[in-house]
Amino acid sequence: MSETAQASDGMIALRKAHDVGLGKLQLLSDAVEATGWEDRPESANRLGEVFQFFEGELRLHFRQEEEALFPALEKVVGRQGVIMAMLAEHQSLWRAVDALYEKVDELKAADDRRKVARNIGLVAEHIVWLLRSHIDKENSMLFPLAERSLSARELDQISEQLSAIER
């Protein structure tokens, strides 16, 4: 970090949200890893909790990044490169989440529940891999880039914007 820029409340909040996300990814893995998971009520409860995370905290987190952090950083480093890559990953993740919802809907009426459950497991595995990789890139590259490239004032403005963005 430069002398003028330091970890702001906003950057700390974004990192904490990543920690929560990693916990939810573990919950997703746990929900679909065992054979026969599709017939266990606790698996449905875990999936429900993960779906709530997707539609609540994750959607809010992505909005905060896309509406506050990315535009500020784009002014310094441009849109091409890291910003475009992160936006593309956001879109890719939502497509995978939509696929997961579709597969779970299929499971409700499926004759071959085990086959659909295996497919759900594959989609869930993809989501876990994609979001873990995305979080790692943001924590190790994007956030340090923001802290090095943006002034303390700009980081404070991002913090204020993050707080203003609500569900």
Characterize this entry briefly.
The protein is mainly α. It has helices at residues 9-32, 41-77, 82-109, 113-149, 152-164.
Task: Describe this entry's structure for a reader.
With 167 residues, the chain is mainly α. It has one domain: Four Helix Bundle (Hemerythrin (Met), subunit A) (Up-down Bundle), CATH 1.20.120.520. Helices cover 83% and strands 0% of the residues. The chain is built from five helices and no strands. Helix 1 (9-32) packs antiparallel against helix 2 (41-77). The two termini are 31 Å apart. The model is unreliable at 1-5 (pLDDT under 50).
Features:
167 residues; mainly alpha; Four Helix Bundle (Hemerythrin (Met), subunit A); 83% helix; elongated; disordered N terminus
- Quote the CATH topology: Four Helix Bundle (Hemerythrin (Met), subunit A)
What is the CATH architecture annotation?
Up-down Bundle
Question: Over all CA atoms, what is the radius of gyration?
Answer: 18 Å
Percentage of residues in strands: under 5%
What spatial form do the alpha-carbon principal axes imply? elongated
Count of domains: 1
CATH superfamily: nmb1532 protein domain like
**Which spans of ≥5 residues are poorly predicted at pLDDT below 50?**
1-5
Top CATH class: Mainly Alpha
| Alpha-beta content class | mainly alpha
SSE order in H/E notation? HHHHH
**Fraction of residues in helices?**
over 70%
Assembly of the depicted chains: single chain
Distance between the termini: 31 Å
Number of helices: 5
Compile the SSE list and pairings.
Elements: H1 9-32, H2 41-77, H3 82-109, H4 113-149, H5 152-164
